[in-house]
Specification:
Elements (H helix, E strand, L loop, with lengths): L2 E7 L3 H10 L8 E8 L2 E8 L2 H7 L7 E7 L14 E2 L5 E6 L5 H10 L11 H9 L5 H9 L6 E7 L5 E6 L4 E4 L3 E5 L11 E4 L4 E6 L2 E6 L10 E2 L15 H7 L1 H9 L19 E5 L1 H18 L3 E5 H4 L10 E6 L5 H12 L4 E5 L5 H5 L2 E4 L12 H20 L5 H12 L1 H10 L1 H11 L4 E6 L3 H16 L2 E6 L17 E4 L6 H12 L5 E6 L11 E5 L8 H18 L18
Parallel strand pairs: 15-16, 15-17, 17-18, 18-19, 20-21, 20-22, 22-23, 23-24
Antiparallel strand pairs: 1-4, 1-10, 2-3, 2-4, 5-6, 6-7, 7-8, 8-12, 9-10, 9-11, 11-14, 12-13
Helix pairs in contact: 4-5, 7-12, 7-14, 8-12, 8-16, 14-18, 15-18, 16-18
This protein binds fructose -6-phosphate (F6R).
The site of fructose -6-phosphate has 15 residues, from helix 8 and helix 16.
Length: 596
């Protein structure tokens, strides 16, 4: 949801901010722009479309301080006028902003009455004019004064004509400071900076920073200096690059054996600190959005199975509407980015209600880690493709680990079953690799269905959420309408939509749901829909029921969502390729949604 970058140092800034900005393009790509402090004054360049379009139009502008922005439109269409940065009436200050200012309309009217001239329809432009109007002797104090007038979420970076400094601040939108040698950076996400530095300082809500080439001064809005230690991020530049794959999504799908291994490393032996789990939890609520919610739904089944603690999963944006009850569930907030506004709001609400909270996230130092009482990192490495893949699978691993922990702590899990399950978990990277080896088979199945306008994905029990996730991946990147459904529900309405033109992907693994799933497949084939059945290795019978069959290795039913979702991720990927869709940057979608 918009990416921002800033650089100040002793090198030419233009190339550096553009390079960093391209690594943030997954956050939005409707338009982009940059502002450079050049000897000829504050130079502004903007363009509609991807960053490559801006780059192709750019001449070299000299200057060693710059800010840049890639936009995901919220207020105002994706036009050059609405692209960031924004300047004040005298082109003295330039601002880039990620977030949403909720009170911008009255502020805009007030500024218009004072004679300010606006050039865009955006909420963000008010910031440039507020800074122009602000009291204060230096850029930092003017920015703080302007921020005092606004409501809403922001991560901003501001530059002033003739000054080699950047003032940045954040509230409920992500911002990190990159620490370099004779140069410093700001960015929405650390992956933007990995080529230049892996030393970062995480700015906290309502903090402001002034950076120059050789100083980083963090303070609160009252000017109180805050000492912030820098942290070293273990991700490498290679982790954040495509490494020869045509798309980040494919690379990230193929990284899953490694990601699963990393996320289990040292955790299966139970060596981690258990003190948080000493409390007795009588119920659990899992919260997340999109793919993270689907992981939460799988978590519901597995945690109940392993720990016998009643567990529900809820979409983050709906959590606030559930009544406060006497019971105080353990609230597990899942967010790969750790910055999703709906999930952060739910985590805050859970704390307000007196619940203990756990964050499951992939991003060190992200906002959700500050909201939670306990954090489980998924350790998937950076995920750049907009569609979540390896972060979903590692969220499942985190939830399996949580289920094992809770089941062990409350004695619901015998040590023998625990041992068996752990042995199965250790085999998961190999299992996933076997699915990946069959990618060409999945590609040919996708080729067959590339012309479909609508598809259903059906499954039962643990694989009902898998069907939801398969459908989400499909609609998100191939633009085929994909609908996930509990298989038993088809006959209660959706069968009306089935025909030869509506393929159905049926998850028919050999577990306690198998016979019932075969019944559902028969219902579907009776309506002429072509069925692609995902089954278990060795199943000779499925071909009698389904037009096409893809088999995944046999695993304990509890773990079956893992190999199956890998197959469905590949299916969605190849559908998108066949249809010529921009896999890593699907239309209208941003990877991190920092607005509610
Ligand atoms: C789909 C996808 C989204 C995210 C959702 C939550 O592929 O990526 O549905 O899962 O926006 O994002 P996080 O997990 O960052 O909170």
């Amino acid at each position: 949801m918009c990416g921002i970058v800033g650089y100040t140092g002793n090198q030419e800034a233009q190339e550096i901010v553009l390079d960093c900005l391209k690594r943030l393009e997954y956050r939005g790509y409707d338009s982009s722009g940059l502002a450079i402090i050049s000897p000829d004054g504050l130079q502004l360049r903007k363009s509609v479309g991807e960053i490559a379009i801006l780059e192709s139009k750019l001449e070299h502008v000299p200057g060693t301080t710059a800010i840049a922005h890639t936009r995901w439109a919220t207020h105002g269409k994706p036009t050059t006028e609405n692209a960031h940065p924004f300047v004040d009436c005298h082109s003295e200050f330039a601002v880039v902003h990620n977030g949403i200012l909720t009170n911008y309309m009255p502020l805009r009217e007030e500024l218009l009455k004072k004679g300010h001239v606006f050039t865009s329809e955006t909420d963000s432009e008010v910031l440039a004019h507020l800074i122009e109007d602000a009291q204060g002797t230096d850029l930092r104090s003017k920015v703080v004064s302007a921020l005092g007038r606004i409501e809403g979420a922001y991560a901003i970076a501001v530059v002033q004509k003739g000054k080699n400094e950047i003032v940045a601040a954040r509230y409920e939108s992500p911002l990190v400071i990159g620490v370099g040698h004779d140069e410093n950076f700001v960015a929405s996400d650390v992956t933007a900076l990995l080529k230049y530095t892996n030393e970062v300082v995480y700015l906290q809500d309502k903090e402001v920073v002034r950076i120059t080439s050789d100083s980083i001064e963090v303070s609160d809005m009252n000017g109180q200096v805050a000492q912030r230690e820098s942290k070293t991020v273990s991700w490498s530049l290679e982790d954040a690059e495509r490494s020869g794959y045509p798309h980040f999504m494919l690379k990230e799908i193929f990284e899953q054996p490694k990601a699963i291994h990393e996320s289990m490393l040292g955790r299966l032996e139970g060596q981690e600190d258990d003190s948080f789990f000493k409390a007795k939890f009588t119920s659990i609520k899992i919260i997340g959005c999109g793919t993270s919610y689907h992981a939460g739904l799988v978590g519901k089944y597995l945690i109940e199975e392993l720990s016998r603690i009643p567990t529900t999963a809820q979409i983050s944006s709906e959590y606030r509407y559930s009544p406060v009850t006497d019971s105080k569930p353990l609230v597990v907030c899942i967010s790969q980015s750790g910055e999703t506004a709906d999930t952060l709001a739910a985590a805050k609400e859970a704390r307000k209600r007196g619940c203990k909270t756990i964050a499951v996230t992939n991003v060190l130092g992200s906002a959700i880690t500050r909201e939670a009482d306990h954090v489980i990192y998924t350790r998937a490495g950076p995920e750049i493709g907009v569609a979540a893949t390896k972060t979903f699978v590692t969220q499942l691993i985190a939830l399996y680990l949580l289920g094992l922990k809770l089941g062990t702590m409350n004695n619901s899990l015998s040590s023998e079953r625990r041992r068996e399950l752990i042995a199965e978990m250790r085999a998961l990277p190999r299992t996933v690799q076997l699915v990946l080896n069959d990618a060409p088979i999945i590609a040919s199945l996708a080729e067959k269905h590339k012309k479909a306008n609508s598809m259903f994905f059906i499954g039962r029990h643990m694989n009902y959420p898998t069907s939801l996730e398969g459908a989400l991946k499909t609609k998100e990147i191939s633009y085929i309408h994909g609908e996930g459904y509990p298989a038993g529900e088809l006959k209660h309405g959706p069968l009306a939509l089935l025909s030869r033109e509506t393929p159905v992907v049926a998850i028919c693994v050999r577990d306690h749901t198998y016979e019932k799933m075969l019944g559902n497949v028969r219902e579907v084939t009776a309506r002429d829909s072509p069925v692609l059945a995902i089954g278990t290795e060795g199943d000779q019978d499925l071909v009698k029921y389904a037009e096409d069959v893809f088999l995944v290795p046999k695993v304990n039913p509890l773990f079956s969502p893992v190999p199956i979702i890998v197959a469905l991720q590949l299916f969605a990927y190849y559908l998108a390729i066949e249809r010529g869709c921009p896999v890593d940057k699907p239309r209208n979608i941003a990877k991190t949604v920092t607005v509610e």
